[in-house]
Amino acid sequence: MREEYDIEKLNPRKNPYTKVKKVQISINITEETVKYFKEQAGRTGIPYQNLMNLYLTDCAEKKKEPHLVWE
């Protein structure tokens, strides 16, 4: 092993397995919603957090607007 390495000569590369950077957040979600996605995860084999991300990404890409009705 060398005593010293020349960092300038290293070839830093991006992680080839990540296409999009993800941001960790903290969010409050109802138990029923989490339960729903966990059930879907059991059926699909996709982790529930990934399913939630896929759903939210789909909404964002399609620019879906929430339809709220106030009574």
The end-to-end distance, rounded to whole angstroms, is 72 Å
Form type: elongated
- Please work out how many helical segments DSSP would assign: 2
The residue fraction in helices comes out at 25-40%
The string of secondary-structure elements, in order, is HH
Largest sheet: none
Overall pLDDT metric: 89
Can you offer a commentary on this structure?
- The chain has 71 residues and is mostly helical.
- It has a domain at 29-63.
- The protein is 39% helix and 0% strand.
- The protein has two helices and no strands.
- The longest helix is centred in the middle third of the chain and has 14 residues, at 31-44.
- It is elongated.
- It starts with 30 loop residues before the first helix and ends in a 10-residue tail after the last helix.
Keywords:
single chain; 2 helices; mainly alpha; 0% strand; 39% helix; 71 residues; elongated
Explain the layout of strands and helices:
Blueprint: H1 31-44, H2 48-61
Short précis:
The chain is an all-alpha fold.
